[in-house]
Amino acid sequence: VTEGIRCDYFSTARRAEIDPRMNVRLLISDDLSVKASYTRMHQFVHLLSTAVFSLPGDVYYPATDFLQPQHSQQISAGIFSSLNVLGMPDVESSLEVYYKEMNNLPMFRNKFSGPSDEQIRRDVVTGTGWAYGADIQLSKHSGAFTGWLSYSFLSAWRRYDEMNGGRAFHPKFERTHQLNIVSQYQVSGKWTLGAIFIIASGQPINIPRQKYFIFNQGQTSRSSEDYVLDYGDLYSARLPMYNRLDISATRSWEGWGAKWELFMNLYNVYAYPIPLYTSYLGTRFIQFNIGFVPTVGINFTF
Predict the structure, then answer these.
(1) Which of the two residues, 64 and 49, has the higher pLDDT score?
(2) Contact assessment for residue 170 and residue 127, using Cβ atoms and an 8 Å cutoff
(3) Residues whose CB is less than 8 angstroms from the CB of residue 14 and which lie 6 or more positions away in sequence, other chains included
(4) Is the dihedral of CA 27, 31, 36, 41 positive or negative?
């Protein structure tokens, strides 16, 4: 059993918080263990998001008298084992489930109009949230070939009395399913090759479900300014499934009293259209994507 406690004081909010945590580990055998944990956390810098999937859409703002620190409690439990029984002692596996409750979660009603306390009070609402999920992972940490394979399931929810009619909705960062495959191969003492493949559910997004026009009494024609977009529930639609492949090559050496790395990264090798943001232009939505991005650089430490 491992216990701990964290104490924080944040001056702009004039708040002191005490966050306890506990981890319990039961060793069943040399290759198998069971773990459980409880964690209480406070966050004093808020990431304020709009309901509109566009840029700029997020603002960082400190906790204040009005925007109290975010507070969460999480419990988790898992099984961790090596695959020594299958003749693979350098491969580890794990299965972990969790549940998290959150309070004082801020969100813009519509958009950010200014940093003053009066404007924040007008622009921001606070609510609650919860999330639960499971993570499964296989990992290999030794030998020339290393890497891991992981699958994550996540169901996250938010609820605000003044948003979406008080009904719960999925936040825009949620990916219900995600599979990651990460590999690295040490070709020699100087060359390393790597590859990352990701496939995941599309993130929630707001898309109008209908458009209607409003006519004033006596009006005989309509203009583009007369229509109203009905978005329905918040984040009731999703972007297409996301996937991409990245590959990299790194050359390492030492010289001039430093360690050097020359690297080349190829992001999104097959140029899958990864959504960056969407914007409503005139009569239709335009999706802006990220395609293939090559990068070359050098790192050094001394």
Answers:
(1) 64
(2) no
(3) 65
(4) positive
User: 6-57 pLDDT, tens per residue?
Assistant: 999 888 778 889 999 999 999 998 889 999 999 999 999 988 776 554 445 5
Q: How far is CA 39 from CA 45, 77, 99, 189, 279, in A?
A: 19, 12, 11, 42, 39
Query: Which of the 8 DSSP states describes residue 111?
Result: -
Average pLDDT over every residue of 134-151: 94
Beta strand residue intervals within the chain, DSSP E: 2-10, 15-29, 32-43, 45-49, 58-62, 70-83, 88-108, 124-140, 145-159, 177-186, 191-200, 204-205, 210-213, 227-230, 237-238, 242-255, 258-267, 274-281, 284-290, 293-301
Please, are residues 174 and 212 in contact by the beta-carbon 8 Å criterion?
A: no
- For 128, the token pair is 């609650």
Question: How many alpha carbons fall within 13 Å on the CB side of residue 268?
Answer: 12
The CA angle 24-30-34, to the nearest 5 degrees, is 30
Q: How far apart are CA 288 and CA 299, in angstroms?
A: 31
CB 153 within 8 A of CB 137: no
* Nearest-angstrom CA–CA distance, 197 and 136: 16
Strands 177-186 and 145-159, by their bridges, are antiparallel
Taking alpha carbons only, the member of 257, 254, 255, 266 closest to residue 190 is 254
Tell me the two tokens of residue 183: 């590999």
Q: How many CB atoms lie within 10 A of CB 145?
A: 11
Using the Cα atoms of residue 43, residue 44, residue 45 and residue 51 in order, give the sign of their dihedral: positive
Contacts of residue 287, Cβ cutoff 8 Å, sequence gap at least 6: 273, 275, 277, 278
| Per-residue DSSP letter, 201 | P
Does residue 56 have a cis bond before it (omega within 30 degrees)? yes
pTM to 2 decimal places: 0.83
Structure tokens, 166 = 């008080």
Tokens of 299: 């790192």
CA 88 → CA 93, 97, 137, 150, distances in Å? 11, 25, 15, 18
